[in-house]
Automatic annotation (TrEMBL):
<keyword id="KW-0812">Transmembrane</keyword>
<feature type="coiled-coil region">
    <location>
        <begin position="73"/>
        <end position="111"/>
    </location>
</feature>
<dbReference type="Pfam" id="PF00512">
    <property type="entry name" value="HisKA"/>
</dbReference>
<protein>
    <recommendedName>
        <fullName>histidine kinase</fullName>
        <ecNumber>2.7.13.3</ecNumber>
    </recommendedName>
</protein>
<dbReference type="GO" id="GO:0007234">
    <property type="term" value="P:osmosensory signaling via phosphorelay pathway"/>
</dbReference>
<dbReference type="InterPro" id="IPR003594">
    <property type="entry name" value="HATPase_dom"/>
</dbReference>
<dbReference type="InterPro" id="IPR005467">
    <property type="entry name" value="His_kinase_dom"/>
</dbReference>
<keyword id="KW-0175">Coiled coil</keyword>
<dbReference type="GO" id="GO:0030295">
    <property type="term" value="F:protein kinase activator activity"/>
</dbReference>
<feature type="transmembrane region" description="Helical">
    <location>
        <begin position="56"/>
        <end position="73"/>
    </location>
</feature>
<feature type="transmembrane region" description="Helical">
    <location>
        <begin position="16"/>
        <end position="35"/>
    </location>
</feature>
<dbReference type="InterPro" id="IPR036890">
    <property type="entry name" value="HATPase_C_sf"/>
</dbReference>
<keyword id="KW-0597">Phosphoprotein</keyword>
<dbReference type="InterPro" id="IPR004358">
    <property type="entry name" value="Sig_transdc_His_kin-like_C"/>
</dbReference>
<dbReference type="Pfam" id="PF02518">
    <property type="entry name" value="HATPase_c"/>
</dbReference>
<keyword id="KW-0808">Transferase</keyword>
<keyword id="KW-1133">Transmembrane helix</keyword>
Length: 337
């Protein structure tokens, strides 16, 4: 039995029970009156005595019926009172659990803020020192270092730079979890022109092009969150289109009911279909850092931002045939403008 059917059955059960009791009572009443009258008529010949016995029989029936109804109503009221007491206890337990859970979430948020502060200050400061001193070492002692030593310094600076980027991405992910979203009506055409300007310039420099073919659509989204999503998707397409002749990135969209569907399609290296879910997991990478830079946080940030805005993201692709990332967001319909 489905949950809805079960709930409907439970809600109608008291009515059916009451109806059954009423039918049983009516049936017993008719049988009692009919057969008791027939029995008295058969046994008693005196009309006066018959009348007295019928009156006594009637009062007996009324008394027994009254007692029966009293005990049934008393039992029903007792059960209803017990159910109300149980409901109040369950509500109190639920409120207590909610309060405990809220306190745990608040404590977790405080810990996350403390972690973010620690990362942004305690970890970034040593990295700046490593990068600064290694740069000074390279500049001041360049001539005294052989090729191998200069290679070591380059590796140190590249490692520090990757660590710096990882910290920045982690902070962005933590910030997305903490910040209060402000959902507003966003004009997609204007927004896309703004967020894709750098990408378009980079594509032109590579001899490629950016196509934006989105109808007049508005979505309800957090402006900063949507900016993070599209910026990461465009940077992802740029990165994995590196080395492709005539790279092309297409941004499209359509309206489906009360949802707006956007997509970012590229003709880059793509990915195998079996990785379509894994690529959104944090720290997951399909390629070596030496081949394609990155921290493995960008697409995880995209998914989390979309979830927080009440949307979703998914991807399709094929190895060597490019990839397409789809976004689904609540649309602002024309009568809501």
């Amino acid at each position: 039995m489905a949950l809805s059917d079960s709930a409907e059955y439970e809600s109608s059960r008291p009515t059916w029970v009451a109806l059954r009791i009423a039918l049983i009572y009516l049936t017993l009443s008719v049988l009692w009156i009919y057969f008791s009258d027939r029995l008295l008529i058969f046994l008693v010949d005196d009309p006066a005595r018959l009348t007295r016995l019928q009156t006594a029989k009637g009062w007996l029936f009324v008394s027994v019926s009254g007692l029966l109804i009293y005990f049934l109503v008393r039992r029903a009221l007792y059960q209803a009172h017990a159910a109300q007491v149980q409901i109040r206890q369950l509500n109190q337990e639920l409120e207590l659990r909610i309060a405990e859970r809220t306190a745990q979430l608040q404590a977790a948020n405080r810990e996350l803020k403390a972690f973010s502060y620690s990362v942004s200050h305690d970890l970034k400061a040593p990295l700046r020192g490593i990068d600064g001193y290694s740069r000074l070492l390279e500049e001041e002692f360049h001539e005294r270092l052989n090729a191998e030593g200069r290679g070591f310094l380059r590796n140190i600076r590249q490692g520090a730079s990757r660590m710096q980027q990882l910290i920045e991405d982690l902070l962005s992910y933590a910030h997305m979890e903490q910040r209060t979203l402000q959902r507003t009506s966003v004009d997609l055409n204007l927004f896309l022109r703004e967020v894709s300007a750098d990408c378009e310039a980079e594509l032109k420099r590579r001899g490629g092009e950016l196509r934006i073919e989105v109808p007049a659509l508005r979505v309800r989204a957090d402006h900063e969150g949507l900016h993070i999503v599209l910026r990461n998707l465009l940077e992802n397409s740029l990165k994995f289109s590196h080395g492709i002749q005539a790279p092309c990135i297409e941004i499209g969209g359509r309206l489906e009911g009360d949802k707006a569907i956007l997509w970012v399609r590229d003709n880059g290296i793509g990915f195998e279909e079996k990785f379509r879910e894994r690529i959104f997991d944090i720290f997951q990478r399909l390629h070596l850092t030496e081949d394609y830079s990155g921290t493995g946080i960008g697409l995880a940030l995209v998914r989390r931002a979309m979830q927080r805005m009440g949307g979703r993201v998914w991807a399709e692709g094929a190895s060597g045939a490019g990839a397409v990332f789809y976004l689904e967001l609540p649309a602002v319909l024309k009568d809501e403008y």
